[in-house]
Amino acid sequence: MSDRAYVIDTMISAKAIAARIEELCREIVNEFGGTDKLVVVGLLRGSFVFIADLVRELDLPIEVDFLEASSYGDSMESSREVRILKDLRGAIEGRDVLVVEDIVDTGHTLNHVTQLLQSRNPKRLKSIALLDKPSRREVDFRSDWIGFEIPDEFVVGYGIDYAQRNRNLPFIGKVRFVADAE
Ligand code: 5GP
Ligand code: MG
Ligand code: MG
């Protein structure tokens, strides 16, 4: 699959992402204003660019931690069984926590991760995802904040990969396969 030729069409520009992050951060500050410290949890690896931009717009005392859940691997299919490959370094009991994800697709990943973190008795637990594909949902899960709703397209860029490539694109693009002759 990953050796097929493809082009990337821009779906969401870097400018549109930056503007949306400013809006989202105003809402997050409203929600968590007065927190002693917000633990911002990035889901590796896809959220690393989003979390970097997000925390620099968040005018709150924060701490950053990361968690890695099993994902697509190098394929384009979702795995319904979610495994934790790397857990948080810190305890979150009694803490304010914001989970940061790149994309909610079937919903299995964020559903599993938020249930796991909720079982550790945080004070408040919220989630944010840059992208949401509601038409693909298989479990009843809604993120508290969503950057953009998108159609059922395979996207890359802004931290999100295809076979580990294209994470460094500054925008969100959609992958379009082309015939070898093109
Ligand atoms: P879910 O468990 O909600 O089905 O999937 C969540 C994960 O699947 C996302 O965090 C992301 O890693 C991956 N994913 C979903 N849609 C896409 C996509 O369009 N492109 C890429 N590269 N990964 C995706
Ligand atoms: Mg992910
Ligand atoms: Mg991936």
TrEMBL record:
Location(s), subcellular: Cytoplasm
GO biological process, one term: hypoxanthine metabolic process
InterPro entries named among the record's database cross-references: HGPRT (IPR050408), Hxn_phspho_trans (IPR005904), PRTase-like (IPR029057), PRTase_dom (IPR000836)
GO molecular function: guanine phosphoribosyltransferase activity; hypoxanthine phosphoribosyltransferase activity; magnesium ion binding; nucleotide binding
Record CDD domains: PRTases_typeI
GO cellular component: a single term: cytosol
Domain Phosphoribosyltransferase, residue spans: 15-162
EC number(s) from the headed UniProt entry: 2.4.2.8
Entry keyword set: Cytoplasm, Glycosyltransferase, Magnesium, Metal-binding, Nucleotide-binding, Purine salvage, Transferase
Pathway: Purine metabolism; IMP biosynthesis via salvage pathway; IMP from hypoxanthine: step 1/1
Cofactors: Mg(2+)
Enzyme class (EC, first level): transferase
Reactions this protein catalyses: IMP + diphosphate = hypoxanthine + 5-phospho-alpha-D-ribose 1-diphosphate; GMP + diphosphate = guanine + 5-phospho-alpha-D-ribose 1-diphosphate
NCBIfam families per the UniProt record, alphabetical: HGPRTase
Protein name: Hypoxanthine phosphoribosyltransferase
Biological source species: Phaeobacter gallaeciensis
Lineage: Bacteria, Pseudomonadati, Pseudomonadota, Alphaproteobacteria, Rhodobacterales
